[in-house]
Amino acid sequence: MKRDELLLNKINVLLRRVNAPKYLNKFGPKKYTLAEKLYALFLRSEWKSSFRRTKKLCDELKISCASKSTMHYTLDKLPWQFIKNMLKATIIRQVSLAAVDETTLSRTRLSEHYMLRAGIDIKRRETTKLSILADTRSKKILAARFRKKIVHDIKDVKYLLKESAVKPSKLVADKAYDAEWFREFLHKQNIAYCIPTKGKVEHGFYRKRDKVDHRVYRRRAMVESSFFRLKQLFGHSVSCITARNMSIEVFLRLILYNISLMLYVI
Question: In the predicted model, is pLDDT for residue 83 greater than 50?
Fold first, then answer.
């Protein structure tokens, strides 16, 4: 079976797991199923192309693809909870060790003509931030949070653990996550952790008693490997303008990344 057929089959499996409807729109013509629309959006992410070029390439390759405006509509109307559930549906086993980290994504520089026509303020577009929780064994992404602006790494970690598809038995992180309240939180959640401290420890009940297992800490490199693979596959930037569409664009990449692992693991 060809890889593109496998990808479409995996999309259908995920949609069944989240109890998604066959069609996104309740009214009007139903020419393309939700799976076919998502398939077109995944192709756009994989080809790192615009909506218009994605449609053109699909026509040249004789791939059934919705129009440019339909892809725009699908991206705008996809429910946010539905996207998060799709990411969770790619995880089907327990996780013993997870790693957390963050990276930045640049925002594509638009032409001044388009920015003036669209009424966008002509200035340097700020860098965005992506935080993920990844399984160190399979390198699958368990949870993610995208922010339009840069914030401290530790602000997203509670959200990641709450939204994770499965609860990891142990967490490994770098010194940016060295905080007494965070260690106490993990202890109450019955999650073991491996977090090095910053310099000499003078305060903190948990920080004073922690010892770093360097063999476990080396597994943190797996989350860096996931970031490298993500940027290698889909690029270092996002092209959408609004915060919601940028978030969905990034999450579609994460879902496709996990699906690409499923194509060979499952």
Answer: yes
